[in-house]
Amino acid sequence: MFHEGAFILLRQRIIEILSAPFEIKEMLFILLPLLVILIVIELYFGKYRYEKMGWNTAVGNSLVLFFVGMNLLNFLYGQGLFLQEQPKTTLAFIVVVESLFLLFINFFHIFPQEITFGISSPLILNFFGAASIIMVYSSVPFDYFTLAAFLVIFIGLFLLIRFLQSMEIPAIPKVKIEGEAVPAPEESA
């Protein structure tokens, strides 16, 4: 079991992670659009529950992660930290390689969509991108407490999004009749 000191350290690490974007303003320019995309897309699929993610969305999510990875490499190079800060450089390369791998499997439909859409979901990829940004731009240490803190934050974000989705009024699917979109007929009980 965790020692009381471990819970205190975990709580401190969560606070450190969540406050990092406010302390290092330059990370906001990449982090904020990523978080907006994450929230808007999740709320979109909450409202339009009958719509499912498609291959084009999976490819787009891969490209967003690619942009994040390239930004991380650019930041490290610009700060003179490229290859000097080994954990940060490794993480940036992992982001780029993962994005290219996902781009390849999504573009060519290599795996079944149930698997691919799960690992290419906006929540997972954008959260991973955001966590990588925080780790590369800040001085948050690379350790198990940080990993546990990100896991707690992810679970909290997941639950918050599901709560917000449950509060949304779902849209009624529309069907096309002679070129016009009209509400789908309601099923009788």
Shape: globular
Number of domains: 1
Order of helices and strands: HHHHHHHEE
Radius of gyration: 20 Å
- Please count the beta strands (DSSP E, at least 2 residues each): 2
Largest sheet, if any? 2 strands, antiparallel
Please report the distance between the alpha carbons of the first and last residues.
51 Å
Mean pLDDT, all residues = 91
What structural class do helix, strand and pairing data support?
mainly alpha
Task: Summarize the amount of helix as a percent range.
Answer: over 70%
**Strand order of the main beta sheet, please?**
1-2
Report the β-strand fraction as a percent range.
Answer: under 5%
How would you explain this protein's 3D organization?
The protein is mainly alpha-helical. It has one domain (about 5-185). Helix content is about 70%, strand content about 5%. It has seven helices and two strands. It has helices at about 5-25, 30-45, 55-80, 85-105, 115-120, 120-135, 145-165, and strands at about 175, 180-185. The protein has a two-stranded antiparallel ribbon with strand order 1-2. It is globular and about 60 Å long. The N and C termini lie far apart (about 50 Å). The mean pLDDT is about 90.
Name its key features.
2 strands; 189 residues; mainly alpha; two-stranded antiparallel sheet; globular; single chain
Characterize this entry briefly:
By secondary structure, this protein is mostly helical.
Helices and strands, with pairings:
Blueprint: H1 4-23, H2 28-47, H3 55-78, H4 86-107, H5 113-119, H6 122-137, H7 144-167, E1 174-177, E2 180-183
Antiparallel strand pairs: 1-2
Helix pairs in contact: 1-7, 2-6, 2-7, 3-4, 3-6, 4-6
